[in-house]
UniProtKB/TrEMBL annotation:
SMART domains according to UniProt: PAS
NCBIfam families for the chain: sensory_box
Name of this protein: Aerotaxis receptor
Residues annotated as domain PAS: 2-55
SUPFAM superfamilies: PYP-like sensor domain (PAS domain) (SSF55785)
Pfam assignment, any one: PAS
Organism name: Sulfurospirillum diekertiae
Length: 80
């Protein structure tokens, strides 16, 4: 029971998305949908660039993907 409560608290207070190694979205939570303005159906299966804000430089995303490919943890704020 505590695990479900913890998961629910995390998913309702943070935006969460998961992608495959090609940058294709495989999961988004409800908060991510609220912030992005897209539905889950519109996001899942699409490239994560669909929510890339034009103010965020491409170099930032390049660095993020390098970190992901190295299987390192990312804790960064991004504008979407």
């Amino acid at each position: 029971m505590k695990l479900e409560q913890y998961q629910s608290a995390i998913e309702s207070s943070n935006i969460i998305s998961k992608t495959d190694i090609f940058g294709i979205i495989t999961f988004v939570n409800d908060e991510f949908c609220k912030i992005s303005g897209y539905t889950k159906e519109e996001l899942v299966g699409k490239n994560h660039n669909i929510v890339r804000h034009p103010d965020v430089p491409a170099s930032t995303f390049k660095q993020l993907w390098q970190t992901i490919l190295q299987k390192k943890r990312i804790n960064q704020r991004l504008k979407i």
